[in-house]
């Protein structure tokens, strides 16, 4: 429907874990892939590279840069961040960032064009339900199980809230680990048991169709320890009418205005995080109003239609 031809071929993709583990297999293949794909790349009016880890095409883009657009969705840090920063600058290509936070993480050449285009999703308008309507306060966290995502911070906060007699809390943590990183899942399970929160917190596997979870939830939390480049879970939750409570850094700040269309707390600050949840519990009408403004923000700015329109402006 969207392409005249689909070519499936091996390309040199360099992952952060490859750099950490000094896995150089893709590096060895790189010269061959550059030669292989350079002629192909010259046949097209535009080259669109959908991530910074496609090493061969990014190097090729150095030599056909007016035709190349690299879509950057990542905020890498440390030596990995420095590597990708230099790679993007070396390319000299046109750059599409998915948020202002992502843009600010890179230093481009003065001659490089860049655009900030926020992601869009179809959303879950069809499951938008009345929130804060039951006696229970239903809190949802969706995402990969990792230290950076903040599941452990959420459990700490829920333990405090339960001890403060908020017995009506129900929490669902939905997600799986990356590859075989089972250690973090065990830590999450152990912390839930340590605090005797089994009746409050349910740990569930990743779902390709989380609509039922968004329909169930009153509040969606995003307690990321490290800044996210955007925040797809935030706009998905907004589309379903949920109140978003998120750490105040990264791309989420392009989406949420504190106390207007969501609630923001100081990153890694459990007391501030707890205060925001307490506010929603104690002020249901205000929480509903903020959530409704979040839904309107999604409808105006973060739909797939809006995303397509903004991307088309670059190429047409």
Q: Class of the largest domain, according to the CATH hierarchy?
A: Alpha Beta
- Which homologous superfamily in CATH is the superfamily of the largest domain? Glycogen Phosphorylase B
Q: Roughly how many Å apart are the termini?
A: 19 Å
Number of strands: 10
Reported for the largest beta sheet, the result is:
6 strands, parallel
Model description:
The chain has 316 residues and is an alpha/beta fold. The protein folds into two domains: 101 residues, no CATH class; 177 residues, Glycogen Phosphorylase B (Rossmann fold). Helices cover 42% and strands 14% of the residues. It contains twelve helices and ten strands. A six-stranded parallel β-sheet has the order 7-6-5-8-9-10. Helix 3 runs parallel beside helix 4 and helix 6 runs parallel beside helix 7.
